[in-house]
Amino acid sequence: MEKLKDYAEVVSRAERGELVFPTSVNAALRLQLALADPDCEMEDVIRKVLAEPQLAARTVALANAAAFNRSNSPVTSVRVAVQRLGFRHLYSMAASMVVRQFGNRINDPELRAKADQLWQHTAHVAALSYIIGRKLTHTDPDTALFAAIVHEAGGFYLLSCADELPGLLEHPEQWQGAAQEIITREMMKKMAIPEPVSQAIVALRGASLMPPPIGLRDTLLVARALAPVPSPLATEPPHASLADFIDGNVALAQILEESADDAASMSAALLA
Please, which domain of life does this record's source organism belong to (predicted)? Predict the structure, then answer.
């Protein structure tokens, strides 16, 4: 009964828009706000990236990933990395910092391991979404990358809440479904996620696939099913329509084979 009360309080806070973000995400949120400003200056962005060492390191790592380094010319400075990636990819990197900080503040070893696994899953989904959007679903790959990075934001928030309220997630029937959707929606609002991206993420729960896959939601669906690391919060196998689409799909297999290096380097950069 106490766990039900705890979970009800978590959901109630979400409904009231009272989600609590760790103070460590402030630098990344400031960068997101700056990048959303159409009058944003390059020098201001570079200063903000340099002010957050982890973000600076990951920005350089992503700029050196095969998908963004076709000339095989290594980047060694934040300035060149920002110029190579552009503001849209930098926005995605800032969002990744926000999401990861929820996992980083978890103390319980079991929950921390789940948070680590959830980020590994997220990184692989992000890399695959970029490739699938570009080569299969004809979805803007930059948007697909960003959506994948934030699509489990609600899961990270729940794991951080469970660290404060032990046993909170022991019974999936209590937190999956409509309550999970409420938390996901409020996380999207708190992070100022654009509505089309937010809608695609919320629509993932229980979704089926009508081939051929098209659009952002289908891009995420396929990428999640293909990710080599599963989400620790997933309790159901992929919908039969999705499994049927993936099994024996020659075109998809060829795309994945041709893009294996790009996917590996991009996911590695996000995990760095």
Answer: Bacteria
